[in-house]
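Good morning N.,

You mentioned wanting to compare the apo and holo forms, so I went ahead and generated the holo version with S-adenosylmethionine. This is what I fed in:
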Amino acid sequence: MSSSSVVSTNDSSSSNDGTSAHTQAHVSHSPHGPPRQLCQCTKCVGQISQKSYVCAQHIQRFGRHRGLTPGASSSRVGSRITPPPYVLSQGVLAAIGNALSHAFAVGIGASHEASNPHHQARPCLPSVRQRSKAQRPSEGHARTIVEGRWGMCEFTGKCANIIQSWNPAVLGLLDSLPYDEEVVVWGRQWIVKTSTLGERHGYGVYACEDIIVEDSTSCRREGPTLFPYGGPIYKRRHWNMILRQHPEWKTFALEMDTFAGSTRRHSDVRVIDGDPIRSGNIAGFINSTVGTRPKRKANCEWVFVEGPPPAPYGETYHEDHCMVLATRTIRSGDELFTHYEWN
Ligand SMILES: C[S@@+](CC[C@H](N)C(=O)[O-])C[C@H]1O[C@@H](n2cnc3c(N)ncnc32)[C@H](O)[C@@H]1O
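and this is what came out, ligand included:
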């Protein structure tokens, strides 16, 4: 089980510009933009949760070096696979988000249920409730085709909108990343290559620079932030809808909101699909310490952060996000490990 916690931030801009207004947050600027520390207030630190993390075998079947999203920058050394906020400004993303929400006119969850002023601006139209079924705008009109692990999957209706809201192109993320080559993610260099656990366990994430944690005995949730999780976060009921349309879409999922005190209904509990290829993030390549021989020490952990993710991870749409923090000093060449179970 991974050790995770919820950390409150006030808004996405706090994550973006490193100026969290949380009274107990200690955030320092890096020259590359990402904040280096997160909130340490007792409320947040107390909400540690245990998550299960399930991963299908996938990389070997999927192949390497898929094409990059059109218009996205190169992800070789020196470029940013998940660039800091200035790649797509919040304004641009907000505009895209508004355009999409108007185009689809469908909400998904609280953060997606933006009011649609066009509905109110058309008084001659009957309300949605008044319209006959045949007259209602059909969610079936929405349609999106995406390349999943198991080939092309077509999603329709609400599923199409949900999937589209995490479209890496919309978020400004690459939809793939190179393996065995250094990439810059959130201001640091990393490489995704065969894990030290061995080839049959797939890939792992390695640091390409030293990341110093001053006091690793007391550094939990105070260590440097490494990178946000850049993949989809679905409500349970939406995840179930997606899997009903394409069961093969599932890769591995991490259940959030299992921490003590969470009041979410089961259908509202959020599920992370950590497919790293689909969403252009490297967080899903972090391997677990469980069962390792020789025993690996965790050097990072997942932290769930209330508040939208920083750009370009979808700050327009999403109400909270995951961040990976260092919990002990990581040297260049070290593989990242955290504690979670999978099946
Ligand atoms: C989140 S993924 C980690 C990245 C994975 N190695 C890959 O290439 O996609 C989790 C999967 O990695 C493998 N894995 C992670 N930690 C492991 C460990 N300690 N021992 C064996 N396999 C592990 C399991 O197959 C698990 O389903």
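The mean pLDDT is 61.

Happy to go through it together on a call whenever suits you.

Best,
F.
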